[in-house]
Design a protein that fits this description.
This protein is mainly β and 338 residues long. It contains 3 helices and 28 strands.
Length: 338
C-alpha cells in the first residue's frame, strides 16, 4: 500500500499521527477541562466539525449552554458519564449518541473514575450565532470571528411601554408544529440497521446503516453508525461536489481508496472528505468486518448536491431529497467557466 500524494488533501488522519492533544478550559467554570484533537480541520473539512475529546474524572465538557442556531452532537466512544439536558440527567456509555438541536441546553460531565472519550461534532457556522449560558446568566453573540458576551441583567426594553411586544404573527409566517427532540439515542435502543447495496456496485457493495442524528432531532448534520461485512465495499467510488463527508473507525480493518491510491485503515483512524475530491470508497479486509461512525452534510428538501462517479462516467444531480437526475459525464452539450 502507498500513501496519498503530499499535494492531495490530507484526508486521512491516522490515530498514530494526531500529535499531542491539547487541553481546553473555560474562564467562567473551573470544572470544565477537556483534551483532544480537531480531526476535521486536520483532514481538510471546512463546514463540518468533528473532534475527538476526552474528559478527566470529575470534569465537564463545557458549561451548560444552549445554541439558538447551531446543531451539535456527541457519540460516546469509551467510558461512562452523565449528559445533562436542561434539568434532566442521563447516564451515558459506549455507543450512545446525543444530538442537540437548536434550543436544547446541554453539557456532559465525567462522574466516573476513568476518562470519558467522546466523538464530538456539529456545524461550522461562519456568519452569526447566539448561545446562552443559563447558570452563568450570560448570552454570547458571535458575528464572524468577533464575540461579545452580555449578562442577562444588562438587558434593556426594546419596545415602548404599553406598545406591541413583538411583530404580528402574520408577518412572521406560520410556526411549524414539531415534536420535542428525542436528543438521546442509546446504543441499546437503536432501530434495526438498514442493509444497503449500492445500485451501481450491487455485487460488491454491502453496508448496514443505523441512523443516529435524525432520531435525535438533527436536520442539517448527518451522523450514522455503519458496518461493512468482511471483504465488502461500503458504496462505490465517488466524489461529492458540494457535501463534506467524514468517518471515524471504531473497529476492524480495511482499505480506503483515495483518488488513485489505496491506504490501510484501522481503529482510531479518521477520514475527512472535502467537497470536490479526492474520489473515495471503503473496503473491509477479508475475514474482518469494518465498523465506523460516519457523517457530513444532511440531505433535506432544500439541499443541492452533485455526485460524480469517475469510473462509471456518471454524474448524479440532487435537488432536494426526491428530484435526482443522472447523466453521462461526457454528454454535456455546453461547457464553460474556469
Amino acid at each position: 500500500m502507498s500513501d496519498i500524494k503530499p499535494t492531495d488533501p490530507r484526508v486521512l488522519v491516522r490515530a498514530s499521527e494526531r500529535g499531542p492533544d491539547f487541553a481546553v478550559g473555560h474562564p467562567y467554570d473551573p470544572h470544565v477541562e477537556s483534551h483532544g484533537w480537531i480531526l476535521s480541520r486536520l483532514a481538510g473539512l471546512g463546514r463540518i466539525a468533528v473532534n475527538l475529546q476526552w474528559l478527566p474524572p470529575g470534569k465537564h465538557s463545557a458549561p451548560l449552554h444552549v445554541h439558538h442556531r447551531e446543531e451539535e452532537w456527541v457519540y460516546v466512544v469509551e467510558g461512562r458519564g452523565v449528559a445533562e439536558l436542561a434539568t434532566v440527567e442521563h447516564a451515558i456509555g459506549p455507543g450512545d449518541f446525543l444530538g442537540f438541536p437548536p434550543g436544547v441546553a446541554h453539557h456532559v460531565r465525567n462522574d466516573s473514575g476513568e476518562r470519558l472519550v467522546l466523538l464530538v461534532g456539529g456545524e461550522v457556522i461562519p456568519d452569526v450565532d447566539v448561545a446562552d449560558f443559563p447558570r452563568l446568566g450570560r448570552r454570547l453573540v458571535r458575528i464572524g470571528g468577533r464575540i461579545a458576551i452580555y449578562p442577562f441583567d444588562a438587558e434593556v426594553p426594546f419596545f415602548p411601554p404599553g406598545g406591541p411586544q413583538e411583530l404580528p404573527a402574520e408577518l412572521l409566517g406560520p410556526r411549524a408544529q414539531q415534536e420535542p427532540a428525542r436528543v438521546l439515542v442509546r446504543e441499546s435502543e437503536r432501530k434495526p440497521a438498514l442493509e444497503f447495496h449500492h445500485p451501481q456496485n450491487r455485487g460488491a457493495s454491502e453496508v448496514h446503516l443505523t441512523a443516529l442524528s435524525r432520531p435525535a432531532g438533527l436536520r442539517r448534520v448527518a451522523v450514522v453508525h455503519a458496518r461493512v461485512p468482511a471483504g465488502k465495499d461500503s458504496f462505490v467510488f465517488h466524489v461529492h461536489q458540494r457535501d463534506e463527508e467524514w468517518l471515524f473507525i471504531l473497529s476492524g480493518r480495511g482499505v480506503a481508496e483515495l483518488g488513485d491510491r489505496e491506504v490501510e485503515i484501522g481503529p482510531g483512524d479518521f477520514l475527512g472528505f472535502p467537497a470536490r475530491g479526492p474520489a473515495h470508497n471503503l473496503r473491509a479486509s477479508p475475514g474482518e468486518e469494518l465498523v465506523y461512525v460516519q457523517g457530513g452534510d444532511a440531505w433535506n428538501k432544500d439541499s443541492i448536491d452533485i455526485v460524480d462517479f469517475p469510473r462509471l462516467g456518471l454524474r448524479r444531480t440532487f435537488v432536494g431529497t426526491r428530484d435526482a437526475l443522472t447523466f453521462p459525464l461526457d454528454m454535456a452539450i455546453e461547457r464553460g467557466g474556469g
